[in-house]
Design goal:
The chain has 145 residues and is an alpha+beta fold. The chain has a single domain, classed as Aminopeptidase (3-Layer(aba) Sandwich), CATH 3.40.630. Helices cover 31% and strands 36% of the residues. The chain has helices at residues 12-22, 29-38, 82-96, 111-119; strands at residues 2-6, 43-48, 51-62, 65-73, 101-107, 123-128, 138-144. The protein has a seven-stranded mixed sheet with strand order 1-2-3-4-5-7-6. The longest helix has 15 residues, at 82-96. It is globular and about 40 Å long.
């Protein structure tokens, strides 16, 4: 059974582990704790049988807009609806709080992720050259409510 809940600082080691195994970018323990301090409601995790399996971390950019910084699911259990549950939960929450838009960046080469976000109503609005530490471009996507 999948459970979505708010991040707790006691999750930081497991969150870092998932992100380091699945993403090319490397984030420090303090990075995750700062996100938590910025906006606790924008940092959620997914658990299956008490095991952390996914993370969505976002920041509030204005009173009515947000930016998703990280959405990652453990690689060995992808395609089971965990990312869908995390993103759906987050979008529902911010829509209920009268947010008007949410942005994110995704690797230009990550066609699977781009398609995933498009299914949730995100549209590509820009390309950001050299956005990632390895020099890859990002596609900036947005969703308006």
């Amino acid at each position: 059974m999948l459970r979505i809940r708010e991040f707790s600082p006691t999750d930081v080691r497991r969150v870092r582990s998932i992100s380091q195994k699945a993403l090319r970018e490397r984030y420090s323990r303090d990075f995750f704790l700062r996100i938590y301090e910025w906006w606790r409601g924008g940092f959620i995790v997914a658990e299956m049988s008490g095991v952390l399996v996914g993370v969505l971390a976002a920041t509030r950019t204005t009173a009515t807009s947000a930016r998703i910084l990280i959405l990652v699911v453990r690689e060995d259990i992808r395609s089971r609806g965990i990312g869908t549950a995390l993103l759906g939960h987050f979008l529902s929450r911010i829509a209920n709080e009268a947010f008007t838009s949410v942005d994110l960046e995704v690797r230009k080469s990550n066609l699977r992720a781009r398609g995933f976000y498009q299914r949730f109503g995100f549209v590509a609005i820009d390309v950001i050259p050299g956005f990632y530490t390895d020099g890859e471009d990002a596609v900036k996507m947005t969703r308006v409510f």
